[in-house]
Amino acid sequence: MPLEISEVQGQSANVKRLMIGGSLDTETAPELDAKISSLVSDAIDLLVLDMKPLDFISSAGLRVIFKATKQMKAKGGQLAVANRQSHITKVFDIVRALLIFKFSEMKTRWTIIWQPCKISSNRVNPKPFYWSG
Question: Which residues contact 83 (CB under 8 A, 6 or more apart)?
Fold first, then answer.
């Protein structure tokens, strides 16, 4: 299924809204990436990706969205994802859960490394700890 991208006129010049429909996968992701890159180079503060007509998204599509988020953030702007259908929302929820799990795992390792402490005279003195992994 092809990807359909249409630019919807926004309320202000510094807000752009893209309607994304069809299938956002390995074959079609470069098309969205090129469109977003051209918009990010404009003087916009907010880019809205309207996913109401989107039927499918793969990891390649997610990669484009995450890249666009970083690009917008680097220039002081924001990217918003709107009108996700339930099956598209599930994909985002799975990715969020994986990111939280990864962060939690890293946080746990940090806690394990610095938890063994001795507090005396308002100072924290970590015990020697040798990380082998």
Answer: 50, 51, 52
Candidate CATH numbers 3.40.50.2000, 3.20.20.70, 3.30.750.24, 3.30.360.10; the one for domain 3-88: 3.30.750.24
How far is 46 from 80, CA to CA, in rounded Å? Answer: 7
Separation between Cα atoms, residue 24 and residue 55, nearest integer Å = 8
Over residues 54-102, the pLDDT tens digits come to: 999 999 999 999 899 889 989 898 888 888 888 998 888 888 766 655 5
Show the tokens assigned to 53: 């007509």
Please tell me the pTM assigned to this model.
0.71
